[in-house]
Specification:
It contains eleven helices and twelve strands. It is α/β, with parallel strands linked by helices and 402 residues long.
Length: 402
Amino acid sequence: MKTTTAMLARHYSRFRVSDRVLLTGHSHQAWPDVAFEAQQQAWLDAAELVDDKWGRAFEVADEVRDGFRRLLDDPDGHIALGQNTHELLIRFLSALPLRERPRLVTTDGEFHTIRRQLDRLEAEGIEIVRVATGTSDGTSGAAAVADGIADAVDDRTAAVLVSSVLFRDARIVEGLDEVAVACDRVGAELLVDAYHSLNAVPFSVAKMGLEGAFVVGGGYKYCQLGEGNCFLRFPQDCELRPVLTGWFAEFGTLAAGPGETGRAADARVAYGEGHLRFAGSTYDPVSHYRAAAVFRFFQEQGLNVERLREISLSQIRRLAAGVDALDPDPAVLKRDRTARLSRRGGFLTMETPRAGEICCKLRGLGVYADFRGRVLRLGPAPYVTGEQLDDAVAALGDVVKD
C-alpha cells in the first residue's frame, strides 16, 4: 500500500504540519520526528564516547554519503560533505587553473551562492559569461539554456556552472549531457547545481551523461535533512588539487607527520584518497546524525524520488487548477498557463508586482509561501494534504481579492 500524505503527516508532529499549511517545501521542508531523536543520540554518543565519538561520526557520515549517492544514481563518484554549498563551491573554484584559463561560463538564473561569488571573481578580473535564461516558457526556453552554454564554451573556459532546475521559476534545464560533451571537448570542468532536483526531480549522473561532472547540492530543501548537510560529487578519476581544503584532506598521509619536521620546498602538499581530496576540517556531526535518520525514514516509507515526483506533480497540478479557477486579474497575479508542469521542478510560480505583500498576508492566514522579486512561489511537500492545498488556494483568492 502506498504511503499517503495524511499517513505521513503524523510523523511530523513537532513541526505541526497538520495545524498550518507549509508551502515552502522548495525552500525548507519540515523534519520528521526521527530527526529529533537522532539529534538526541548525537549528544548521548558525545557524552558516552567523548573524543572517541569521531569513529561513530565518520560511520554516520558514510551513511549520509550513501544517501546522496542513491539520489544521484551514482555508484562510482566520490562524495565530499560540507556544511553548506558555498564552502564546497569555493573548494571547487580553488582547484581550477584560472591563471591559464581565466573564463567561467554560467547563466543569469543561478542561485546567489554561485551568482554572488562569480560577481566577486569578475571584479578581480576573471571573465564571467552569463547565458540568458530568457523567457519563462517551459519548453524552448529550457532547451535554449543548455544550447547557449554549449556555444559559449571555448578553450579559455576553466569551468561551466549551471543549475539543473532554475530556482526562480522551477524550469528544468534540459540538455546537460550536451553541455558535458562541450566541456569535455575543450577540457573544461562542469559543475551542476542539483539542489532543486535532489529528491524532487529524478536526477541520474549515469543516464544524464554526467560521470565526468561535479555536482553540488544539499538536504535543506526537499530531503528534509535540515542545515549542515551539503555535498560535492566529483569524478572517480579526478586529480585536481583544490587550494582551499582542510586538514581532513590529509587523512591517510598524517602518519608520516607532514609539517612536523618541515617540508621540502619542492614537495607537493598531499591529498587523501577518494572523497578526502575535497575534504574540509573539524565539523559538527549532529547534522549528519539527523540526515542519516531521515534517509532511513524515507526508505522505510517507500519514498523514493519517483514516488516523491508523483506526489509533487499531483499537488502542483491541483494548486495550478485552483489558481486558474480563481481567474485573478493578471495585473495582480498571473500564472504562465502555457508551460508544461511536467517540465517544472517542485514548486508552482506566479508573477505579481505585490509578491511580498501577498506572502505576508498569506502568512497571517496560516499559509506559508515565499517569493523572489516579482515571483510568488508555492512549494508543497509530501505531508501536505489535498484539503490543505485547497485551503491555500482559497486564502490566496481572498488575499488577491482584497
